[in-house]
Structure formats: structure tokens, C-alpha cells
Amino acid sequence: MIMKNPFWYPIRSVNKCLIIPFVFICFQSIGQERSATYFYSSNEQIPLAYLRVQVEGGSFMDFTDLAGKLEYLKKEIPENALINISGYGINDTLLSIKEIWNLDTIFLPSKEFELPEVAVNSTKLSELKIGDAKAEGWQATKPIGLIGSAQGEFYRYTIRVKIPKKKQLYLDKLKFYVSDILKEKVDVSIRILLPNNRMDIKPGKNNSIHDFSDLLQRNKVVEVLKPGWVQVNFDEYVGIPEGVKDLFIVFDLLEKEPKSNFALADQRVSKDIDLGFYITGGEIGVFNPDKFHPAIELTFFKE
């Protein structure tokens, strides 16, 4: 299924960051100059793993490793390039490549929004599912592409899930169906975002990532080995704060080039699941409702 998408266009979302200079690291490898930069949280002074680092309007894209390290060939990035940095726990940030080349460590401020604590008040919980892993679906023939997008724009599967607002819910697990066009295994970083201040999500409207918070306490990375249903279990129940009406699930493929051919199958079993978008630069939203939606299933428990 081809998803038309009139909302994609280059957007620049700049976030101030604290940059502390260190000695610039570079070395020679097979006659080519390589560079390394580390990304740390300025709040907790810890490495920022699995950040997506992408040239704005260009073809370079890669991720930091567990140590917060990004290593790359200098020739891969034009010297006048702007670099968009996004990932778990930070607002999308725009830096010039010259700033990055002149430093070995960059400190980025973490999001300051603090999720309220949600306690399980009852041992008698009933199950609630959104989506249906037992229902039929349709295989994707190719990964979703971006119509009219800038060169090098990478689509991240983004899904909006509407949830009942009158129930205290605890997220237990997530399932998603990977189409059989998958060519090789791939690691997928999964973020679950919720809008702040009970904001209304309207189809086609671009919302700033600054107005969203990560629901999970840490990055969730899943290894996808083969097509079919993939189940993601969380370490403990994830409480949904009171008043939240929408959750956004964002899948980031941890691959420098799209070799895996990862794509989600389609279903049409729920009006509470919609395909969304997350534009490089920090704009997030949902497309107009469609009878088809990505094949996922969320299992909650409710009091």
C-alpha cells in the first residue's frame, strides 16, 4: 500500500545545547580521515545511546553506540552541512558540522518534563487490548517511502494509538508484524511518546516534539530476526498518566543504510490505530484516518 503524505517538507527545529570543548579526535584508516564524537546528557552526565544523527537534506545518517559515540568518515559530510540530532530523552537539536568537527564531546540537555508516578492500586486487573494479533493482515510489498521528500530523508514508522481516557491503564506488552520482505536482521529502537498538557492531536497537523515526553524509563531496543509477529515485553507495567488520550510509537531502524527492507504489515481491525509521521527536525503528527493501519497490538491492564 502506498501512503501519500503531503505533510513532508524540510523543517528546522533548533534546540540550544551546552557544548564543552575537548581535544578533537581523529585518526587515519586506510588512507581516509575518520572522526569520532561523543554525545552526553548535560543533566545526568551519561552517554546518549542510539541518537539518530542525520545531515539535513543530505544522504548521511547514522546512530550513536552504547557509549554515545558516533564514528564516521569525514568525507561523508559536506563542510557546510547542518546536522539534526534526535533520540530518546532529548529534543531534536540542530548543529553545524563544524561545531561537531571541532569537539570530541557534545553535551545535550535532557527533556525537563517529569512523568508523574503511577502506582498499581489493585491486584484485580482486567486486560484491555488495542489491535488484534489474531486477525488477518496484508503484507507490505516495499517499505514506506516519502513522497516529495528531501534527499536522504528516512521514514520512521510512527503510529498513533488512541486510548480510553476514563480508565487507569498499565501498558504490559507490544506486538508488531514484520512483513515477509525483510531481507536481514535489524535492531529497532522503540520509543513511546505522549503529548504534554493533554493537547489535542488533529490529523494533518504538525506538532513539535518539544511538546512530547518519553513514556519509557529507558531506550527499548529489539532485535528483529525474521518476519512475523514480534513481541516486546516491558520490565514492569508502564503506567499511563491520567488524562492521556494518545500514544505515539516510533520505530527507528538502527542501520546506516536501509538494507534490512523492514516494513510493517497492514490490518484494518481498529479505529484507534493510525499511521503517523515524525519529520526530521522535530515535527510529529498523524495522517488522516484510513481503513488500513500498521499491524500492531498493545496489551494493557486496567483497574
Please render the helix and strand layout as text.
Layout: E1 18-19, E2 25-29, E3 32-41, E4 52-55, E5 61-63, E6 69-73, E7 82-86, E8 93-96, H1 97-101, E9 105-108, E10 126-130, E11 157-162, E12 169-178, E13 186-195, E14 207-208, E15 212-214, E16 220-224, E17 228-239, E18 246-253, E19 266-267, E20 273-279, E21 283-286, E22 293-294, E23 296-302
Parallel strand pairs: 3-9
Antiparallel strand pairs: 1-9, 2-3, 3-6, 4-5, 4-7, 7-8, 10-23, 11-18, 11-20, 12-17, 12-23, 13-15, 13-16, 13-18, 14-21, 19-22, 20-21
Could you give a short account of the major beta sheet? 8 strands, antiparallel
The top-level CATH class of the largest domain is: Mainly Beta
**Mean pLDDT across all residues, rounded?**
84
What's the tally of helices? 1
Please count the beta strands (DSSP E, at least 2 residues each): 23
Strand percent estimate:
35-45%
- Helix/strand order, N-terminal first: EEEEEEEEHEEEEEEEEEEEEEEE
Poorly predicted runs are 1-31
Distance between the termini: 38 Å
Principal-axes geometry comes out as globular
Task: Give the key terms.
41% strand, Jelly Rolls, 303 residues, mainly beta, Immunoglobulin-like, eight-stranded antiparallel beta sheet, five-stranded mixed beta sheet
Plain-language structure description:
- The structure is a single chain.
- This protein has 303 residues and is mainly β.
- The protein has 2 domains: 91 residues, Immunoglobulin-like; 177 residues, Jelly Rolls (Sandwich), CATH 2.60.120.
- It is built from 1 helix and 23 strands.
- Strands 11, 13, 14, 15, 16, 18, 20 and 21 form an 8-stranded antiparallel sheet that branches. Strands 1, 2, 3, 6 and 9 form a 5-stranded mixed sheet that branches.
- The N terminus is likely disordered.
